[in-house]
Predict the structure of XRE family transcriptional regulator.
Amino acid sequence: MIKCNFAELLGARKLKIADVVRDTGINRSTLTRLYHETTSRIDFDTLETLCRYLECDVGQLLEVTDE
């Protein structure tokens, strides 16, 4: 299973989904699904934009778990 750490990264930086929408132009529903870990896929462009915005690596945003 792949776990998305988007919510934790936002919390650590004291950001809201609305901040990310405004600053990146990524669709709010896409970010909401990532935040609640209900998404089944992510576009490479979106992944790159989020990693650059949050100044993190893909491995910090997404991780493989044994669940």
About this structure: Residues 34 and 41 are 9 Å apart (CA to CA). The chain is about 60% helix and 10% strand. The longest strand covers residues 2-4.
